[in-house]
Specification:
This protein is mostly helical and about 260 residues long. It has two domains: about 1-35, no CATH class; about 75-260, no CATH class. It is about 65% helix and about 5% strand. It has helices at about 35-45, 45-55, 70-90, 95-110, 115-120, 125-140, 150-185, 190-200, 215-230, 235-260, and strands spanning about 15-20, 25-30. A hairpin with a 5-residue loop joins strand 1 (about 15-20) and strand 2. Helix 6 (about 125-140) crosses helix 7, helix 7 (about 150-185) packs across helix 8 and helix 7 (about 150-185) packs antiparallel against helix 10. The longest helix is centred in the middle third of the chain and has 33 residues, at about 150-185. It is elongated, with a radius of gyration of 32 Å. The termini are far apart. About 25% of the residues are buried.
């Protein structure tokens, strides 16, 4: 009996045939040139699914940026100049603290790009929370009362301030989001709104200095209107309306938080 030939190499189809002399002959059939490609294509994910996954991973898109207020062109130039001096004064210009300080400087001076940039960068969430904590800390204790922070009374006062300010910010963000969607169908994620508005409140860090509270509060309100103007892409009147809605919601949130803490 004739021995069976060894199996073929992988990827080759074979069949057994008898030759005219009665022996066993192996016939090897190579796959068609496009067969392997067709097989690979059959197991690859549909292009629609891949496109949807890529689109889901992309950040949201803000409305088109409006024309900035004219005086903000000057304040933007001042902010860039101060940030350049800050970078020149430190040896390691790539430190995250330096980048955060530059963003805060630009936020305090209403730089034309800072609010939209903060809104579209989820990686700035931790930095925004740190800025919010600093605003609460410096806004609750003036320079003369800062030493009281380390007393039991100061700790209780700080806790109340954190809860009240946090509740007011949460209410303001969700109220502004709802108003923007209801009035002009503008979708603004709460986290994006929070980041932009926190950088607009950076002037309140100087509330540590006595006698500047009212002036800083007014400037922070103007910065908040500028942030909403940049994010929504609408006119200044709409930004003012959103700021008023946020202010009312913020007051309600702070009042409810105060009732809970009593």
């Amino acid at each position: 009996m004739e021995a069976v030939p060894p199996p073929p190499t992988r990827g080759i189809q074979m069949s057994w045939q008898r030759d005219p002399r009665g022996g066993v002959q192996r016939a090897e059939n190579l796959p068609a040139p496009g067969a392997a490609q067709a097989t690979a294509a059959s197991v690859s994910p549909p292009p629609d699914t891949a496109a949807q996954a890529a689109a889901a991973a992309e950040p949201f898109v803000l409305p088109a940026a409006p024309a900035p207020w004219k005086f903000r062109l000057q304040t933007s130039a001042w902010a860039d100049a101060v940030a350049a001096q800050l970078r020149g004064a430190v040896a390691n210009k790539q430190q995250p603290v330096i980048a955060a300080a530059e963003r805060m400087i630009r936020g305090a001076l209403m730089h034309r790009d800072v609010f939209r940039d903060a809104a579209q960068r989820p990686e700035l969430n931790i930095e925004a929370f740190c800025a919010a904590a600093a605003i609460v800390l410096f806004g609750s204790f003036g320079l003369n009362n800062f030493a009281n922070l380390f007393s039991s009374y100061g700790f209780g006062m700080l806790t109340n301030a954190v809860v009240a300010r946090g509740a007011s910010w949460v209410c303001a963000v969700f109220a502004i989001q709802a108003a923007a969607k209801a009035m002009h169908q503008i979708e603004l994620p709460p986290a994006a709104l929070f980041r932009a508005l926190i950088y607009s409140q950076v002037p309140l860090l100087l509330a540590l200095l006595p006698g500047l509270g009212s002036l800083l509060g007014l400037w922070a309100a103007v910065c908040a209107v500028a942030a909403l103007h940049d994010l929504t892409g609408r006119d200044t009147i709409f930004a003012v309306i959103l700021a008023v809605v946020g202010g009312v919601a913020s007051s309600v949130g702070a009042y409810l938080a105060g009732m809970v803490l009593r």
